[in-house]
Write a structure and sequence with these properties.
By secondary structure, this protein is α+β, with helices and mostly antiparallel strands. 16% of the residues lie in helices and 33% in strands. Strands 1, 2, 3, 4, 5, 6, 7, 8 and 9 form a 9-stranded mixed β-sheet that branches. A hairpin with a 2-residue loop joins strand 1 and strand 2. The protein is elongated, with a radius of gyration of 26 Å.
Length: 185
Amino acid sequence: MKIAPKNRVQRALAIGTAALALLGSAGCSTINDQATTFSYAASDGIVANVGPILLRNLMLVAADGDSQARVLGTASNSSDSPVQVTVTGTGGTASVTVPANGQIRFEQDENKTIVETPGADPGALVNLEVKVNSESTELGVPVLDGSLAEYKPFVPSSAASPAPAESGAAAPSGSATPAPTEAGH
């Protein structure tokens, strides 16, 4: 009869140890938020929503803080009508029209959008006001240069003069409207 209590104690200890091992191995997810539930910009640019416009991987690319800067990223329109997007920074203003349920990819030549200067050297964040219809917001947008091979083709030449209006470039006081592209093209 003395053997039975000893087996019960051993069984209880084994079950308790197994329960603690399970709690210990699964406990991290019960007290910490899962990283996959957070939205973040997975690239070098930023992610923002302004009204019906979804801005993805938005950034400026320039040789330095005093030369022209090209806007890169994608602006998607989730509304049923075309939307005018105006980007204003210390170096000027640029405007594009994003088609209804469509998008503009600034990397495409037909959507090339230039501002006179980024307002800061590469590696810094600059404040850009993004206006969509009557809604506007100020965004901290990174300035990059051509040190990364994928951005080198987009760095405007420092000796270049402002591009003509039909190319989509914008001088500080002017604006241009690049040709819209269809979603998925």
